[in-house]
C-alpha cells in the first residue's frame, strides 16, 4: 500500500469517527503528498533527460571537420554541438565545385568538405 492509499484509509476512518477538523487536515496532507509525488516524477524525468544528454556527450567524437557518434556515419553540425550541445545531423550535402556543401537545418551553418588533395586542408568553413 502506498502513502496516498494509507492517507485515504486513515481519512475514511476519521470521517466515520466524525472528527471533521482532523478529516480536513488529512485531506490537506493527501493533497501535499500528491504534489510531492508529482514533483518527484518531474525530477526523475529531468534526471533521465540529463543522463541521456550526458550519454550523448560521452558518445560524440570529433573527426575533422565533423562530429560523429559511434555506429552513425551521418555527421553532426559542429556549431550546434559546440555552442548548444545540440546534436543536429547534417542533411545530404549539396554538390558544388568546391566539394560537397553541408548546411545545418537548425543554425544554417555551412561547411564545404572538398575532396582532399595532397598538401590541402580537409575543410573550408563558411559562416551562415
Which short descriptors sum up this protein?
alpha+beta, 3-stranded antiparallel β-sheet, 2 domains, 3 helices, 48% helix, disordered C terminus
Tell me about this structure.
This protein has about 130 residues and is an alpha+beta fold. It has two domains: about 5-55; about 65-125, no CATH class. About 50% of the residues lie in helices and about 15% in strands. The protein is built from three helices and six strands. It has helices spanning about 5-15, 20-60, 80-85, and strands spanning about 60-65, 65-70, 70-75, 100-105, 110, 125. The strands form two sheets. A three-stranded antiparallel sheet has the order 1-2-3. β1 and β2 form a beta hairpin. The longest helix has about 40 residues, at about 20-60. It starts with a helix and ends with a strand. About 10% of the residues are buried.
Structure summarized in a few sentences:
This protein folds into two domains: 3-56; 64-126, no CATH class. It is 48% helix and 17% strand. The protein has three helices and six strands.
Amino acid at each position: 500500500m502506498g502513502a496516498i492509499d494509507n492517507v485515504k484509509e486513515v481519512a475514511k476512518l476519521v470521517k466515520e469517527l466524525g472528527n471533521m477538523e482532523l478529516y480536513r487536515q488529512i485531506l490537506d496532507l493527501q493533497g501535499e503528498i500528491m504534489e510531492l509525488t508529482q514533483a518527484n516524477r518531474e525530477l526523475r524525468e529531468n534526471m533521465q533527460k540529463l543522463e541521456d544528454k550526458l550519454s550523448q556527450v560521452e558518445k560524440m567524437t570529433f573527426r575533422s571537420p565533423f562530429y560523429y557518434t559511434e555506429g552513425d556515419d551521418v555527421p553532426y553540425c559542429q556549431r550546434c554541438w559546440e555552442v548548444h550541445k545540440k546534436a543536429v545531423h547534417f542533411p545530404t550535402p549539396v554538390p558544388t565545385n568546391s566539394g560537397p556543401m553541408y548546411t545545418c537545418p537548425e543554425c544554417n551553418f555551412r561547411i564545404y568538405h572538398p575532396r582532399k588533395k595532397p598538401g590541402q586542408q580537409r575543410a573550408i568553413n563558411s559562416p551562415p
